[in-house]
Specification:
The chain is of the alpha+beta class. The protein has 14 helices and 47 strands. Strands 23-24-25-26-27-28-29-30 form an eight-stranded parallel barrel.
Length: 827
Amino acid sequence: MIRVSFNDGWQARPKVNPFAELGGQSAPYRPVTVPHDAMLGQERVPPGAGAEGGAEGGAEGGAGAYFPGGTFEYRKTFPVPEEYRGRRIALEFEGVHRDATVYINGDYAGQRPFGYSQFLIDADRFLRFGEDNEIRVEARSHRDSRWYTGAGIYRDTWLLVGDPVRIAPDGLRVTTPGIEPETAVAEVVTRVENDSIAIRTVDVHTEIRDGAGTVVASDVSRITVLPGEPALCRQRLYIDDPALWSPDSPALYGCGVRLTDDDGEVDAATARFGIRSLSLDPRRGLRINGETVKLRGACVHHDNGVLGAATFARAEERRVEILKEAGFNAVRMSHHPMSRAMLDACDRLGMLVVDEAFDVWTSAKSEFDYSLSFPEWWERDIEAMVAKDFNHPSVILYSIGNEIPETGSAVGAAQGRALAEKVRSLDGTRYVTNAVNGMLAVMAELSKMRQSAGEKAADGAQEGGGINTSMADPGDMMNAVSSSELVSRRTAESFALLDVAGMNYAESRYALDKDLFPNRIILGTETFPTRIDGNWRLVQRYGHVIGDFTWTGWDYLGEVGIGRPQYLTPDAPRPAFVAPYPYLLAGCGDIDITGHRRPASYYREIVFGRRAAPYLAVRRPEHHGRTVASTPWAWSDTVSSWTWPGFEGAPVTVEVYSDADEVELLLNGRSLGRRPAGADHRFRTEYDTVHEPGELLAVAYRDGAESGRAVLRSATGPVLLRAEADRPVITAGGGDLAYITLSLTDAAGTLHTGADRTVSVEVGGDGVLAGFGSADPSTEERFDAKERRTYQGRVLAVVRPTGPGGIRLTATAAGCEPAEVTVTVAE
């Protein structure tokens, strides 16, 4: 079927019930361009400000970054030519959050409860041909998630038009069942549908092209399709000297299929695919094309920071680019299916994917979440995920769930088996996992374990604290519970039905299960960022452990403050999970919401063995001497800066990360001594000194010889405002965006991290401001405003092109000369 973008021409508004609307309470529609996040434009609600404002667990509380839920209504008028009469017309929505209901010309046309599934609406029976038609989409989001979801039509929409005899949507699937150095077999399966009343015979023309566009294989087959009975055309094509797809060499091929009859072309479809093999065993782990690959993984949510949940193709591509530059080779989309745009980017850039179906099954985690719809809809949502993923070589694992409490019960294991087998029936070329949290799997019996732990603690206190010490840290507690005999027994069936046992916060099982379950292959599907050095050592040591996924690779909206730095006070003797309003971000990403890498990212790159140079991070001097009491998701309160105005002569702690034998720290040329570093010292060392503006230099030594250095310099002199676009040329369509970083620097380009001020922007030419914001974790500023205060010297503007030509952005800030940048917009 012909696919045409359906993103333009929409209007949106908050919806009220019909009786309130009759009373004049309705809000006016305003023009929007899809993808669009209706929630991001809402006023955030402090606790106690309204009947629902204090909820900590739903979209209205800290889980959803204190954004209110609501019902949102979209509408669009579009013409349907008379010549479309007799053809099949469908509308495809890649994602509407949540409980989407679609009306065409006032009539109910379909719905989809799950906010992350693509779905089709058969439209032709509701349409008026030769005139304008109206489509209306309602979406509801209300205490239905543990993170910021956004709301509305937040992914792409498409108009599909085809003849009664046509290739079904997502009906072209390519596998590579045989791969040898000289030749690869590509099996192309095309699903042909016939909605006419006659038997139809068509020819199926298939071509495969390499990355340069050269035809490398072709075939023609004839297929007869009975009315109302879809038929599969299965063709085996042979590709000489195949270029294999891998993370280091992501070679892609294109497959094009045309249907023809005596009157000419009937329909056409295309797909991109890669040629690669997957294998698993407990000794060699995961192998891609015969080579063992350890997954250096990042868990990520779906929001795009200053854009909210709006899923623009360039936003997804940019995230994958930055994650790969930071040393990751795999992404786990948590905890819902990934967008098509991000899958395309992972294919092109060589990023492996664990695509996850659900965060809940039948046991609710929020008051009105997907558990209410799961029994009726899970099979259709699994089908949608697999149909979307099938041709993407980046996808290597399907995850059927995340931290599902039911995994500790027999009935839950039976449900897991049904899910896993459903996935396998649809796609037997990938593996199935489930991200199991052992502690949640035995939650019903956890109180008994705690009571027993308390009794043992009394005996262990005389021997240095016993279990009390290990339970003082929630990460230790999760590991202690997860490695218990109770969890081993209760999760055995849920793990046995999987190809890969996904484990959240349970590295204590890695060595244990090598003997207990010798055929079990393990993936650390979610781990604490502060434990990557020890976890990665286990991943490298054990063949049956295939990788580690940190929570999280990229910071996100909602679950506010789980990774924020906290300090002991008389009123707060232990860390709190949810931060108070106006906290906005989780604060636990290696990379902040603007795409800037934080110190944890460079530390991880060193642990992965992918960075030779040391890295310098400085703890905020205003907290020097205080006792840290953060969660295990929190990194140290550090900034890679030696600019601390007002703290001259104040004590400060400097962290140095390095895989070298030792490092030396020099302050303004004066050595502060050499310290051991490397794996035996957790790849880090610390120096206590006093802040003295100038130059801070770290030199790393391996076997006595210098192996790398890092330097920080204090910003001096007047503050300058600089503007820099991520690319000089973008395109007018396809979801492209321009990312423009505005920074405060000195004349030498050193960032003024201590000179934050409000920046105003104006966009002219062929573009509009799509989002504007910083990585400030706690703020009441809006992402849709034209003024925003910098955070640590930076703020990010995202501009959406409106057509070919050029975009000009002008930025101003108090005490600075205006900064200007231009971006060319190509056709």
